[in-house]
Specification:
mainly alpha, MetI-like fold, 314 residues
Length: 314
Amino acid sequence: MKKYSNLFQLSFFLTPALVIIIVFYLLPLVLTVYMSFTPIRNWNTERYLSQFIGSYNYYRIYHMVKYDPIFRQVMINTIIFVLITLIVNVFGGLLISLATYFINEKSSSTLRLVWLLPRMSPIAVYSLVWYYFFHGSEIGTLNSLLLKLGIIDKPIVLGQGVIPWGPWSIIVFINGLVGVSFGMIVFSSALSHIPRELVIAARVDGATNWSISRKILIPMIRWHILYVFTWQLLSLITSYAHTFLLIEWGLVNRDYGTTLSLYVFLTAFGRGEQDQGLAAAAATILAIIGTVLGFLTLKILKFERMIAKPRGDI
């Protein structure tokens, strides 16, 4: 009887979460996969949704990867954006958390609050701030400062430069600040639960902050590092909101700013001819890539060892 009671309680608490996952995740995914096998365009569901064209949309993507330099640039943008921003997000959040761990509580709380501002700001407001900061004229905060200091004699159009590192640096910087704040929250919470006695004992033995961080703090929050790494990886693969606004406002060059997730959005909802069938195929591939990368990340970082039952009696 107790077994069924526990099962009922478990079902009671899990059902709302399962309903949300099914309605907002699984059903859209199934619909996306189905649409990828149809020629649907301009959201003309009555005409196209019942037509089945097999893997033609996937063949189109293969053809673009092989012959279309614009789409190949999209893939390069995605790889560079995800890899560099992921490094900034994880190690930036970890560095800030460790730095604030060794100072007094009042100062550390203030610093963490400052780093939380990007996370708390609406996407449009946050993007607008950096739009004016990096603007390629005298009204841009960065250009105005450099002109007054005499470092440059004319404004730098960083986001529309002929070299890709200008647009890439802006996109990574803006998205990186948001990701750093997320990692900082998780890492700071994890560090606060580490017994202070361990740090005090290490201090008595003459350990430096770096030694304490490397040999005590970081090993004890490896689970949280794995979580942030995996979460940020999957999040960056599908992230496009800030980049979309910066491109629409003309700050960042579209050729070097468009990632695969943004390409999916623009193909399905952009101006002019909308090709939802092609966008659905690209989105399906993106979902497969995210699933594979998430699995490999957990495997490489030995997730199963972290959740394994401890050996012996405790």
